[in-house]
Amino acid sequence: MNILKAVLKHEVFPALGCTEPIAVAYAAGIAAQEIRDGIEEIKIKVDPGVYKNGFAVTIPNTGGEKGNLIAGVLGALIRKPELKMEILKSVSERIIDRAKELIHTGKAMISYDKSKTELYIEVFIKTESDSVRAVIEGSHMNLVRLEKNGQTLFEKESGEKDSADQEYKQILKNMKISELIDLAQNIDDEDYDHIKRGIDMNLEVSEAGQKLQKAGHYISDSVKKGYLLNDVFSSTKVLTTSAADARMSGLNLSVMSSGGSGNQGIVAILIPYNVGRYFNIEEAKIIQSIALSLLVNSYIKCFTGDLSPLCGCAIAAGTGAAVAIVYQQYRKDMEKITLAVNNLISDLGGILCDGAKEGCALKIATSTDSAIRSAYMAMNDYGITSMEGFAGKTAEETIYYLSKISKLGMAKVDDTILGIMIEKTL
Question: What's the pLDDT score for residue 167?
Answer without folding.
Answer: 87
